[in-house]
Amino acid sequence: MYKVDLRTRVHELLPQHIITKDNVSSSVTAVIYYHIENAEKAVLRVTDVDQGIHQLAQTELRDLLCQKEFNDILENRDEYSKIITQKVESRCADWGVIVEHIQLKNIDLTNENMVRAMAKEAEATREKMAAMIRADGEYQAAVKLAEAAKILRNNPVAVELRRLQTLERIAKEKNQTTLVVPMQVFQQVQETLKSTDSAGQEIDLSAFVNKDSPAEGDKAGTSESKK
């Protein structure tokens, strides 16, 4: 008389050393979940049902993953786990066994040089993405600046408000010697230069002298009266 345990069995498969399609040597481990549904078939149709399932799962795992690239295995391990489960389950149906799930557990590189190469590749990929993000940010900033320039060009009030904001920011800065020249001074200089002829007529600078300050003649008269 044989006693058959019908509960779900959980076993970890031995590490499988494989060489992927892109010639990467790696070690893969997996966990298998199954239970016996028909005790008669499990006893009469196979000598050791546990050993048979283990060997079948390992074979299907190697056959499938050796046809895939390493990065593809890392990205789609859940999908490949389902494919391996379906293949093993179809083969074990005659043994009275139901394979619930086979899950790929660890996927490790066996060559240290390959580990360093993969790390460098990942670092280069991250640097590439960072450069692309910076370039995209600079492009968007340039577009916004161009749009702002168009708005300011057609709106003198906005230009004046922007100038006042700049002056306010400069006034808040500490430990700096800042000379703020009103825009009206430059406008007055420009108008005076335009009023001169092209022959080099002398420019009257009295327009730029502070009206509140006394003239040289007044200073001289004051000094003579004191004498």
Automatic annotation (TrEMBL):
For this record, the Gene Ontology CC terms, alphabetical, are: plasma membrane; side of membrane
Q: What is this protein called?
A: Band 7 protein
Q: Which domain of life is it from?
A: Eukaryota
* Family, per entry: Belongs to the band 7/mec-2 family.
Domain named Band is located at 1-122
Q: Which InterPro entries match?
A: Band-7_stomatin-like (IPR043202), Band_7 (IPR001107), Band_7/SPFH_dom_sf (IPR036013), Stomatin_HflK_fam (IPR001972)
Whose protein is this, by species?
Reticulomyxa filosa
Instruction: Please list where the region (Disordered) is annotated.
Output: 204-227
Basic and acidic residues bias located where? 213-227
